[in-house]
């Protein structure tokens, strides 16, 4: 595919990196020549220096015959105008834009072909807020991903000493929990992936990705680690867009406090939020945390725009007695560095956002993509189409499908039924299939599996 990315920031740069390794023709546009030089040195891509909303710059980037425009600059207005220009002058088939401001997102009918022609809207703040919300709903999980409208969840947990399944073969799980159907999609041991088989033994500290009907998730988690009690008391450091949205979502079911250093922003938050306690001060202030009884806090979420403040306030909160700390980190290099020590969960906003962008880039009928392990692996939801002659999957049992190396099928969703993947499950047309791919180089092969042959048409 010929793809133009506007914006060489963290999201644009990470996206270019993902797509350049997948045989796409990528052009990145930005006003910052230094950023473009750095990207060009690392990746096999074209770069164009200039404002992404200017018709001349878009023509120079090859918009006339581009398949897709992805506008992820820091300006909502530039992203929106770029999509308008691409549609009006170049008839670009697919236009994706990052739009942050709620003032735009809440206006019905604004983003349509007769108004602002954007095919797919990406709101990073909403994506990250949903990501954090799911983690708070599942205490003990490192990652919680939803598929098929939330019917199925893929959850990553760390196996702990004392968990009933630690030291046991995976086959034991089915015998031990006959009423719960689940499948372990992948195991990461000392950062290396293991494709699970029935005789694979789970060790303490393994990162285990398992898939199940959302109603069975808690039962399976209890096999891998001691179940943690529900989070009730939440302290949020940072009252920006993500902090505000999270508080808004949690305040009717949890006790929520927000710590915000800007007095003006504190005033806005206290007017907009109903039950959240808004505190003016610094999240790195030991005195403030003491006064707010940090030792009674179930989860401390550091969500400011400053990585250093997030890391330092999280470490301080943990040492002062917070049960769990969750930290937002923009610099991808820091994420692996800090997670697992005093910081329980580190979240990279770029990685959370990339998945929603990749969904629209994948070939075949791909409806959901989640980027995992800092982009090393992917969880994909694909829809099977065709018949036995035209499709490589329809009419075949899972055990007969020639899956690319490092790929496992976790579950099949048929209407309202969730079928955990066993070798004898036969795929039907219209099934939603959830796959786990530990080797990104195999993505093209996975896409080909779900592309229908011409005989179908």
From TrEMBL:
It holds the Pfam family TrkA_N. Residues 1-122, 231-347 form the RCK N-terminal domain. The keyword Transport applies. InterPro entries: K_uptake_TrkA, NAD(P)-bd_dom_sf, RCK_C, RCK_C_sf, RCK_N, Trk_Ktr_HKT_K-transport. Residues 142-226, 367-452 form the RCK C-terminal domain. Keywords: Ion transport, NAD, Potassium, Potassium transport, Transport. SUPFAM superfamilies: NAD(P)-binding Rossmann-fold domains, TrkA C-terminal domain-like. This is Trk system potassium uptake protein TrkA.
């Amino acid at each position: 595919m010929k793809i133009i990315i506007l914006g060489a920031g963290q999201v644009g740069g990470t996206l270019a990196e993902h797509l350049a390794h997948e045989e796409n023709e990528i052009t990145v546009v930005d006003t910052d020549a230094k950023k473009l030089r750095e990207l060009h040195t690392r990746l096999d891509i074209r770069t164009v220096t200039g404002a992404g909303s200017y018709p001349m710059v878009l023509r120079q980037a090859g918009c006339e015959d581009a398949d897709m425009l992805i506008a992820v600059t820091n300006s909502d207005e530039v992203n929106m105008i770029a999509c308008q220009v691409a549609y009006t002058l170049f008839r670009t088939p697919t236009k994706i834009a990052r739009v942050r401001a709620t003032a735009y997102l809440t206006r019905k009918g604004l983003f349509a072909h007769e108004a602002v022609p954007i095919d797919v809207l990406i709101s990073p703040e909403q994506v990250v807020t949903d990501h954090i919300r799911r983690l708070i709903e599942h205490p003990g999980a490192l990652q919680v991903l939803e598929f098929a409208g939330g019917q199925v969840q893929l959850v990553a947990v760390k196996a702990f000493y004392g968990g009933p399944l630690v030291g046991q073969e995976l086959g034991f799980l089915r015998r031990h929990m006959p009423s719960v159907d689940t499948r372990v999609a992948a195991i990461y041991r000392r950062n290396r992936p293991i494709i699970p088989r029935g005789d694979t033994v789970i060790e303490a500290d393994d990162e285990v990705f398992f898939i199940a009907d959302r109603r069975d998730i808690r039962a399976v988690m209890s096999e891998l680690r001691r179940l943690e009690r529900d989070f009730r008391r939440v302290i949020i450091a940072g009252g920006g867009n993500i902090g505000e949205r999270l508080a808004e979502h949690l305040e009717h079911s949890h006790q929520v406090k927000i710590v915000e250093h800007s007095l003006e922003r504190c005033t806005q938050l206290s007017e907009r939020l109903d039950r959240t306690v808004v505190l003016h001060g610094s999240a790195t202030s030991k005195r403030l945390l003491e006064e707010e009884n940090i030792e009674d806090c179930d989860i401390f979420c550091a969500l400011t725009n400053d990585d250093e403040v997030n890391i330092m306030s999280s470490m301080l909160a943990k040492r002062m007695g917070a049960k769990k700390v969750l930290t937002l980190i923009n610099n991808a290099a820091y994420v692996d560095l800090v997670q697992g020590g005093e910081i329980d969960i580190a979240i990279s906003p770029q990685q959370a956002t990339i998945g929603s962008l990749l969904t629209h880039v994948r070939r075949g009928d791909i409806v959901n993509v989640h980027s995992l392990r800092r982009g090393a692996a992917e969880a994909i939801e694909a829809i099977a189409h065709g018949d036995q002659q035209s499709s490589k999957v329809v009419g075949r049992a899972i055990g007969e499908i020639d899956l690319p190396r490092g790929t496992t099928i976790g579950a099949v969703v048929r209407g309202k039924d969730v079928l955990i993947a066993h070798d004898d499950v036969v795929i039907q047309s219209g099934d939603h299939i959830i796959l786990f791919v530990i080797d990104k180089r195999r993505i093209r092969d996975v896409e080909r599996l779900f592309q229908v042959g011409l005989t179908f048409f």
